[in-house]
Amino acid sequence: MKKVLFFLSLAAMCIGLYGELILQTEMRNQYGAYRSPAYWLLYSLLFCAGAFYHLRKDSALTLPVGSFRFPLRKIITAVVFLGLAAWGATKMLPIYATYPITPEQSDIIPNLELYVRRMLAGEFPYTPMVFETWTVLPTYFPMMWLPYTFSELLHIDYRWTAYLGFLLVLAVWMWTLLRRNTQTLPEILLKLGLPFLLLSYFFDYEPKVFGHAVELLPIAYYWILCLGLMNKNRLWFFALGIVCCLLSRYAFSFWLPLTLVIFWIEYGFRKTLRLGLWCIGGVLLLYVIPFLAQDWSILTDGLAYYKTTAIRQWSIQGWQQVGEKPYHLFQGLSFSGWFYNNTPGTALDKMSAARAAHAIVSFAAAAALAAGYFLIKKYRLTTDIRLYLMIGLKFYLTWFYGFIYVPFGYLFMVPLFIGVAIVFEISFFGVNNKSGVE
């Protein structure tokens, strides 16, 4: 029976992750603006259901595991990693050439360049950004643009910095797996290939997410968050992940308070206080002291401007034909199209209804995770609360993005690649002790 449940859970995770992937790439919007997001959400929840099975202590199929300190294992992993990284770079090159950095096509990277160049010139980054025919108010938090100082100083394409950040965190995770006595070398190598397999679908079907956006860096931040969450010995690393996500893609807004409360229950007030102080210190050093303290209105003005730019996506774009519906709302990635078609009133009324639903659903997802935690504690279903929280992060973000009211396609890469992080962490074959880094 154990083997049956194991393979059912494994099948659920594989089918769920693959379903998410193809609905964002090869089969995007193939089932229409209503069914496509519903299928995407169901596939993601199927993955979570399969992953939750592995909270059991005896979920893995135990196989003989050799010592991971044997140098050949590290050499093989390093060679495979470098080969895959180089392959990814060769796929990126023609994409970058096809999508030049021009504000007329996308102002994401031009905005990043302005932030960095202003800071390096000693100017205040958070002032209006004037382009040829429009002006943008700065809304990005520092971790969305500060790392690109590296690109600016070395005079390299900003998109390479995002890819390098992605590779760096992936290398740290593979090194961490090699140091644990929990997974066989073939399993680690298969897992190493998984993120590149997912990238290959985007290379082939949605290359513009690499040409116009730099979402690989926020993915790296969420991987740091997950890796830090699972690391019992380095609290600062978990705090680093929290700060990076808070100051970039802060989609985990309801998940984070719940996690801190659970962390308090599980590990005590003193450890939670230390974690909180690390986080507060990071936010102060990276955002409040150097930027926000110079002009406290940049936060409120930025949030207000985000609402203004969001409402524009609920109107027909200038390049669309009369009678068409807002482009981004009907790409089969969230239920925003349903609200547009079924809410009476103006575009603002429609978006307000979608925003309210988004907040309610996100809060309900966090509440469901809280209820699940207390059920786990009551019935002693698992002692691996950290893994529960990581799977819970994907569960929460599934609902968050499924109902997001500004559904840009590149945003959905984050919950997809959190699924990859969960796969990294679970020992499917080998010694399933989940004891952390040796």
Runs in which pLDDT lies below 50 for 5 or more consecutive residues are 432-438
Order of helices and strands: HHHHEEHHHHHHHHHHHHH
**Beta strand %:** under 5%
Rg value:
22 Å
Shape: globular
**In order across it, which strands form the biggest sheet?**
1-2
Give the % helix: 55-70%
Provide the structure class.
mainly alpha
Alpha-carbon distance between the two ends: 32 Å
Q: What's the helix count? A: 17
The total domain count is 1
Give the mean pLDDT. 92
Task: Please outline the major beta sheet.
Answer: 2 strands, antiparallel
Number of strands: 2
Plain-language structure description:
- The chain is mainly alpha-helical and 438 residues long.
- It has one domain (2-425).
- 65% of the residues lie in helices and 1% in strands.
- The chain is built from 17 helices and two strands.
- It has helices at residues 2-24, 32-53, 71-98, 108-120, 149-154, 158-179, 185-205, 208-211, 216-230, 235-246, 255-267, 269-288, 297-312, 336-342, 347-379, 385-402, 413-425, and strands spanning 129-130, 135-136.
- Strands 1-2 form a two-stranded antiparallel sheet.
- α10 (235-246) packs across α12.
- The chain is globular.
- 39% of the residues are buried.
- The model is unreliable at 432-438 (pLDDT under 50).
